[in-house]
Structure formats: structure tokens, C-alpha cells
Amino acid sequence: MHAELQLGNQLCFRIYTAARLIIQAYTPILSKLGITYPQYLVLMVLWEQDSQPVNDIARRLMLETNTVTPLLHRMEKLGIISRKQGINDKRQHIVSLTKKGKDLEQQAYDTIPSCMTEQLSECPLSAEGYTQMAMQLDSLIDTLKQKY
Question: pTM here?
Fold first, then answer.
């Protein structure tokens, strides 16, 4: 067998597994808020800047609009966001937080950071190590984003 094709030698497998397990750790916390991890990502984008076009949200999350649109539709049914046609361009839809969506920010702040810190407390990663890993992942993402 070729060493290059062994699962244990694949960086992509480690990244995939870490991402899947981190999302799994978020799931019980987010379910108490009544949202999923992808919905949480959309909310974080809107908490940073409310009332954005669907295209901008998709771009920020590095997803296609046809992936984001059904997600937004479910969030609208939950009363977390509202979607309205753009004023200048009727084809454009602007996504805004409802009161419920805005209230979720404080609820998320009150629970998610402390719960995730507790769950990851056994991870021997220092703040400096975390920052370094984040920078390396950002570099990897930027490199791959330019190619695909």
C-alpha cells in the first residue's frame, strides 16, 4: 500500500474529523436555542451586520446561494429572520434579523462560549497555539479558495 494513500497520513481527514466533532459538540448547546450549526453560522454573519443580501451571506460563509437559500427559508419559518425584496433590484433578497433572531445573540453569548470552553478544556492548546492554528487554517482556506 502507498503511504500517501493511508488514511492516517491525510491532513484532510484530520481537518474533516475535527470539524465534524466540533459541530457535534455544538449540537446539544445549539439545540437548546432551537437552531442548527449552519443556522448559527448565518446568525453570526447577521449579528455582525444585519440586513444583508443573500449573496453576501453566502459569500461570507463560502457557500453557494442554492445551499444558503433553503437554510434561510427554514430560519424564516422559525421566525429568526425575515427576507424582503431589494428596493433597487427586485431579484435581490435582503435578509434581516427579527426580534427573536436578535434576542438569540444574547442567549448564544450567555451559553456557547462557556460551554465550548468547558468541553475543550482538556485540549492542550494554548491561546497562542489556537491563534497560530487559526492563522494556518486561514492560509489553507485562502489558498484553496483561490483555486476553486
Answer: 0.90
